Amino acid sequence: MSLPLRDDPKRELWYAWYAAVFFYTLYSVIFFLVTHVQPPGQPWYTPTQVTHWFAHYHNGLLIGFALIFALGGLSATSIALITYSIRRMSVSRAFAYSYLILYAVSAVPGFLFICVAMTAGTFRPDRDPQLQQWLYDFGFLSFSGTMGVFLIGSLIWMTAILLDKNRVFPKWFGYLNLCNALTEVVVAPSWIFYRGVFAWNGLIAWWIDVFVFGIYTGVFLMLLRNMILREDFGSGPLPELPLLARQAPATLELAS
Amino acid sequence: MGRISGERIIFWTLPAVAIIWILAFCLFPGFLPPMSPTSSAGDVARFYQEHTARVRYSMIVLNWFCVALIPILMLIVERMRRMAHRTPIMRYCMIGVAGAAPIVFLTSSVFWLLAAFRPDRAPDLTQMYNDLAWITFTCGVPFLVGQCVFLAISIGLDEQPQPVFPRWVASFNIVIALALIPAAFAGLAHTGALAWNGFLSFWVKNVAIALWIIVMSVVLAKALQRDVAVAGAAA
Amino acid sequence: MTTIETAPPTPPVTETKRVPGQPDMWVFVIFESLIFTAYFAVYLYYRARHEAAFLAAQSHLELWLGVLATIALLTSSWSIARCVQTARAGRYKTAVRDAYLTAGFGVVFMGLKIADWVHQIHLGNTFTSSQFFQYYFFLTAIHFVHLLIGFVVLGVLLYQLSGAERRSQEIVETCATYWHTVDFLWVLIFALLYVVR
User: Fold this and answer.
1) A179, A243, A256 member nearest C4 (Cβ)
2) Cβ separation A2–B156 shorter than 8 A
3) Distance between CA atoms of C179 and C67, rounded to whole angstroms?
4) Of B53, C1, C20, C190, whose CA–CA distance to A240 is shortest?
5) Quick one: residue A233, left, alpha or beta (phi over 0 = left, psi -120 to 50 = alpha)?
6) DSSP string, B133-151
7) Domain of residue C88, CATH code
8) Which pLDDT score is estimated for A225?
9) Is A32 exposed, middle or buried (0-12, 13-18, 19+ CB in 10 A)?
10) Which of B79, C12, C162, C197 is most buried, judged by most C-beta within 10 A?
11) What is the pLDDT of residue A45?
């Protein structure tokens, strides 16, 4: 029994890409619709209000985060693809490995802590409200306020793209990485304020930031797809998109 | 074929690590039998007061060695180099999850150590640390599931006359991944098979992890032997 | 690859560039400007809601410090524009001198900004002391970060100019575009924070 796309030499890249798209879709659906942690709960809630928030979203929180606990490992596919893209560039492999490590670690503030904190908060509804509020803070701040990993990671990818001579990614995407890196700076005040535009759910620290991040993620998933379509497993510059690029991957004919 | 010097040394750390883990596991008073989620704050506080020393020593050991499996995982990643893959993408996936997986055990050991640090504090606080430790430890399976799935797919893609790992290893990894998944849902139950002390979330999950380590080390030993022979023939 | 051979030929690349520098940098400029516009919109919205409080806080600002800083940055934009011109004419030694001049004015701006911040903090106006100063410190700080990046960009520019085999006019213009953007954003920030009353 053989895995799908048997005759496509790029199939491992396609597996990773479809897994990455699936992961980001799942992640968005769970965080926005199932658990309701995005947009985040109000930072200025009193302990009693926090307890009500946990109770109100009880089932969604537990089931949603259980799904992330089960399937969160798929996040590695997106990281692996980006690492591969950097390795395909003309820059030192140090860039690729730095990115891989930075983002492997990013999974911890990226979803693990919020899963643990929110599950612990929902799990014992009769806990002292002050402790519930601590768990609530831990969940949201560990998720929104942890910036270093993503900041440095974006800068590494940006530098690699700008130095690259193999045209793996367009230069404007390198600059977009800078925009994304700057959103990490902008979210930092969420550690200081619990009201207003700089709070963890504020107009500037959350809404504008998430909008930029959403665009960035959509763009890089599309660019990764283009990269896979163009890939010829050689070294040196990546070929341009074939004119028949819009075909499904399995039927794409490669140069003989 | 790459350099293999020193790989056997890494490999033989595995039994040592396994023994240390088993000792830590048995020494920790909360595993055999596993603590119940339904214990009151008072009971939990009393537990930490009565067993302070054993909690501390077992968790210190776990804290030291929870990352000890990484070199072994890297041995597996090195074997993947000889698989019939066109790109290193599956190895990158493996490295990605291997990097994050020990942090789960590290974090849970930190929470247990915190719970035991001031046994006389308010019972509510101790109970919260205990909850955090148990939830992290039990539900924190995503990277292990990922590892099994990536390895299974890698083996499935390894279509050559002499695959690096036999086909059944892929099926075995899928079975282990499925065995680990129920534990992710431990937050939904305080009693029963899904609770963190229940049959599925505690026993099946931990036995699955142990089984994976045992089986993969045998499989890895065979693959290592073959690579040593190949390197020796090439020399 | 017969399909490529029979494909209609792509139109030839025109000799005259439509934008100076890499078009990619303009994508960044537009995107960053949009983000800053969003920040400005938020600022103006909240300012309209608390006009009196904002006016009272704004009166603490030293207008002359802001004006001096603006002049410094505008002068740096002039010197980098000269740099692009002299580089295009092939007078690289002069271009390098212009680039250093730009950096110098950038440093002057930095000094004035830091002096302004220190002054405000001494007056008791910090990031957390009032709504206006939240925006003041945020906007000036995020601009400052862009300026620091600008110094890295100037470094790239100097690297290009100082090596005969490296001199890419496109990269020189791209760097200049970035620097002009930093200047442009400052003018807007200056107008919003210091002047609009």
Assistant:
1) A243
2) yes
3) 19
4) C1
5) left
6) HHHHHHH--HHHHHHHHHH
7) 1.20.120.80
8) 96
9) middle
10) B79
11) 94
Taking residues C126-135, what's their average pLDDT?
A: 91
pLDDT digits (tens, 9 = 90+) for A173-205: 999 999 999 988 899 899 999 899 999 999 999
Nearest-Cα residue of chain B relative to residue A107: B100
Instruction: Kindly compute the dihedral angle of the four CA atoms of residues B186, B192, B197, B202, in this order, to the nearest 10 degrees.
Output: -70
What are the φ and ψ backbone dihedral angles of B120, each rounded to 5 degrees? -95, 5
Task: For residue A245, tell me if it sits in a domain.
Answer: no
Cβ pair C31:A176 closer than 8 A: yes
**Residue C14's pLDDT is what?**
47
Instruction: Tell me whether residues A198 and C4 touch, CB distance under 8 A.
Output: no
C12: left (phi over 0), alpha (psi -120 to 50) or beta: beta
Give a yes or no: residue A115 inside a domain: yes
Residue ranges of the domains in chain B? 7-234
What residue has token string 């862009």?
A: C146
pLDDT recorded at residue B1: 44
Phi and psi of B5, rounded to 5°? -65, 135
Q: Which residues of chain B have pLDDT under 70?
A: 1-3
**For chain A, first and last CA: distance in Å?**
27
Asked if B93 reaches chain A (Cβ–Cβ under 8 Å), the answer is: yes
Residue C34 falls inside a structural domain: no
Is residue B230 within 8 angstroms of chain A, CB to CB?
Answer: no
Give residue A133's Cα distance to chain centre. 26
Q: Reduced to 3 states, what is the DSSP secondary structure of residue B119?
A: coil
Containing structural domain, residue A34: 11-240
User: Can you tell me the distance from the alpha carbon of A19 to that of A228, in angstroms, rounded to the nearest whole number?
Assistant: 14
Structural domain boundaries enclosing C129: 63-197
ipTM: 0.91
Pick the residue with more confidence: C1 or A96?
A: A96
Place of tokens 């501390």: B56
> What pLDDT, on the 0 to 100 scale, is given for residue B50?
92
**Domain count across chain C:** 1
The total number of structural domains in chain A stands at 1
Return the half-sphere exposure (C-beta side, CA atoms, 13 A cut-off) of residue C52: 0
CA distance A82 to A6: 24
The verdict on A71 touching C (C-beta cutoff 8 Å) is no
Q: Which residues contact A72 (CB under 8 A, 6 or more apart)?
A: A107, A111, A112, A115, B142, B143, B146
In a domain, A152, yes or no: yes
Q: Which residue has the tokens 């107008």?
A: C191
Q: Which residues of chain A fall below pLDDT 70?
A: 1, 242-256
Query: Over the stretch C11-68, which tens digit does the pLDDT of each residue have?
Result: 555 445 567 788 899 999 999 999 999 999 999 999 999 999 999 998 889 899 999 9
Min Cα distance A43 → chain B (Å) is 21
| Mutation target among A12, A79, A235 for the B interface, most CBs of B within 10 A | A12
Interval A25-59: pLDDT, tens: 999 999 999 999 999 999 999 999 999 999 999 99
Residue C189 lies in a domain: yes
Distance of CA A241 to the CA centre of its chain: 26
